[in-house]
Design a protein that fits this description.
The protein is of the alpha+beta class. 18% of the residues lie in helices and 33% in strands. It is globular and about 60 Å long.
Amino acid sequence: MKLLTLLLLLGVVSLAMSKVVKSFTECIEFFMVNPEDQNKVITSVLEGERYRQICQVWNGKQSFATLYDTYHRIPVYSAYVFNQKNRGFGDGFVWKIEPQLDDLPGDEMRASEGEILKNQAEDPDYNIEHEGCRYTRGHVFPRGHAVDKDHTDSTYTLTNAAPQLMENNNNWATQVENVMRRHIKAGCVNEEAYIVAGVIPGETWLPIKRGSEDIEHGVNVPKFFWSAYYCKNKKNIVKCKAFLSEQKPCKSTEKNKLQPREMGIDELNKILSDYYEQDVIIFPGK
């Protein structure tokens, strides 16, 4: 599976395609392609006007893809290709927005310029204490899976983040993101894999302000975080696995509020299908 070659070939065509799109075919390189129709991706796109497909662009290059939920103001998932043979990245980046979600000028993610954003989260939304708890901007496509500095910087968009307790953020990185990296580097041909990571909304909301308006149901705090990878090993045997964890309420007395568990892709597909009440496929089941 020559994912890096595919990225390079398609990337040349994709540099100008920086927008909220009608179809993920405009950044298809971040998804498994349906073998029965090369113009379609396997990963499901949810039905409904509130779900928007984004080909995430930074510095003129497509970096990953996100299905965004404008009602909950959090992603459904982000899809990307993992390849870290020449890994290296920095820190201290600015959180960005997607202007086209709110019909603002701009053809790629950028820092907010003080606009009133109705369809997405903005940085001040996270700078509050809610019911005695503070939440961090939890990456969906994690910065630790990026290839280089630009790739890392591109993950710092609020369309790729959801409220996560700091303890949970650290545990997820240790117990899922780092574990997936080891699995892929040890068992996937060319140390490459497709990854789709996402959240499932919960019943807690961070209140937000938009101009003079106070919005009680502002940014949703996910009940679940999940991630899944798919690749083939040197013997052309499929390797895939999913991880899912419930995010306990912030005042839970449980010592470890995030306890990820491994599962098959079929189980994750069923959990997502049951929640969204429509057929959802992240990767083919196994």
